[in-house]
Design a protein that fits this description.
globular, 2 helices, 5-stranded mixed beta sheet, two-stranded antiparallel ribbon
Length: about 110
């Protein structure tokens, strides 16, 4: 079995496309637009073949509970080493992205 892709609702489709292209070397498909539903999406392909679909639709709204959102919980992206994670984290913070949790090794062994 293979997971074909993961879908992720986003508020700002172009900003998220740029984020994944810039920091994770993703390649974006052509913009898909369904005029009947106002649905827009990009498929982002990563170097190992993994794919992420980022999606936006005007009627999808936030359902925040503290720092958590109902539905999608997280996306794990492997960079190859702790050093690469630390380096990218430093770049993202310097460019204004908030660091919600410091880098660490989790109880199940992920860094």
């Amino acid at each position: 079995m293979k997971i074909e892709h993961i879908g992720l609702w986003v508020r700002d489709l172009e900003r998220m496309r740029h984020f994944y292209e810039t920091y994770f070397d993703a390649t974006a498909s052509e913009l898909y637009h369904n005029t009947k539903t106002s649905f827009h999406s990009y498929f982002l392909t990563f170097s190992d073949g993994a794919r992420l679909e980022i999606m936006q639709r005007n009627d999808i709204v936030d359902h925040n509970i503290g720092n958590e959102m109902l539905g999608f919980a997280h996306l794990a992206i492997s960079l190859g080493s702790k050093e690469q994670v630390d380096a990218l984290t430093t770049i993202l913070v310097m460019e204004g992205y908030p660091l919600l949790s410091p880098t660490r090794t989790t109880g199940d062994g992920y860094y």
